[in-house]
Amino acid sequence: MSSLKLFAKSRTISLLIGLVILTLVLPGVVSAKTISSSVNYATGDRPIAGDWNGDGRDEAGVYRPGIGFYLKMDNGNTLNPSTDRFLSWDNAAGDRPIAGDWNGDGQDETGVYRPGVGFYLKIDNGNTWNPSTDRFLAWDNAAGDLPIAGDWNRDGRAETGVYRPGVGFYLKMNNGNTWNPSTDRYLAWDNATGDLPIVGDWNGDGRAETGVYRPGVGFYLKMNNGKTWNPSTDRYLAWDNTAGVLPIAGDWNEDGRTELGDVTSGNIRYFDTNGRILSTLTSSDSEETNYIMVSSLLSGGECYGAEACNPTGSPIGGGAGYMRVVSETDAGVKYVVSTKDQLITALKSAKSGEIVFVKGTATIDLTYTPGLTIPAGVTLASDRGNDGSPGALIYRTVRSNDEHTFIAGGNNVRVTGLRIRGSDTVEMDSISDVKCAIKAVERTGTEVDNCEIWYWSYAGIAQEGGTGYYHHNYIHHNHPDGYGYGVVTGGGNSIIEANIFDYNRHSISAPGLPGEGYEARYNIERGHGTAYGGWHHFDVHAYPTDGQSSSIAGNLYKIHHNTFETTEVECIGIRATPTTGMYIDHNVFNVPPGRPVFKKSYNGNSLRMFVTSNFWNGVLYKSDEIVDYQYG
Question: Hey, how many other C-beta atoms are within 10 angstroms of the C-beta on 62?
């Protein structure tokens, strides 16, 4: 399944006129997941990239001045005339290429800016210019302007713009042909003559914002499209201040926000927002990028880890950019609440198919309140990530003998967009009175998504039997000894997808009951903390069927396309042998020298471990060399 795009990607071209060097700045486009080596670049070619085929991934291309566009329709390493595209609709030597989804069809189209003339936007990727359907925009035709493009208004289409050195940014809020001072935007927050423009969604709100790279100084990122620089809210990044580099920008880790990078001496470096190198592409790379903390897409077509492979269309961990966020005005919202009493009353009254919506500004204290049952088929929702909303906060300050906070009262219960905080704020020794945020016992179709869940003694989410789908959550700091699970699934089957886990004793745990299983995919395990008894992050216990010698570890588990960042404990622990098997593949492990997976087997029973194609500390292992087998 390909990634769906919520908004048009943002692009800009930075030109160093004196050096006659052009680099394309491609937020959400030039990324470690899509560029693996050169694609027949000739001297003078100007790189361009976009989702030419609508598969949700960006492909490479070049604009050859005086010739036309060469578009790679996949991320292979050679140009294939039978499948790739050559477009000769524009071949003027002085034109500057741009790309964007001009028509909102989910595929990127090409365009050029002709200095002193204007923009030519190809509304499809046909090979000839059609004056009746393609667009010529003469709203800006100053010879020294540098073209940019981005979805300034969040309408799903890319609009044009320019950066005028020494003056500022001009953003066209639609693709009309004339500049309208009352609706279009002029931003004078930066007007230094030597700055190079960049564009990206710095804050993950679905809109493109502006920025500049000042050679020898660093990046200045405007966190909104306001007209003045605000040191308290906007960002200055001095970690990259080498005068000779050229800036690039893109969502390298698919978190819904744009990160930065640079090009120098034939190398492309990709950074996170803290200036930490994520990966490096050198001109000598023939097949793949270096894997450092996150994963990339190999030129052979396989991807590894969570960020590069995330097919969901929503950022890992949810929040800004999440596709299925519920708002107060959505159809199905029956009750809108903001207090404890209103919430209790609404949940008692709600019927299947109805939504109980908690205002994003609400803060509700449920300390000493008995657990609240969510009826079958009912959705309990808030709007985490919608237009900057943090989502309603529901919390407890004291762990008591009351029930768990929310209980699935039937099948097909959904909890979405909330922040649910427990009372256990510090690591502690084993405790007997353990609670969780959400519990489902023998329920099918339980769904928890786009929530932040933390400080629970037993688990953030606890499933006993039944089925569940737990995805796009941020689950952290659940860490008492003996418990402290992010998600625990006992005896049932669940999909655990695109979550961010951190500071949990076990982020995913299962007791290993007969018939049990889970599939963990596209998750990021941050790996911080060494909570009491925290041997490993993803876990399956041994379940004794006839004494210790006959213990099993459930039935079927699939752990694939996850990223495990630096950690002091093993990433995956399997404490006996599953009935069907454990499948581990296409993960990225960044761990100390000890193997990232351990498997315990009793009395030489069958291993049933199927481990293939995982990256461990930057090296690809095709089989089970990453497993530490222990025999009892």
Answer: 24
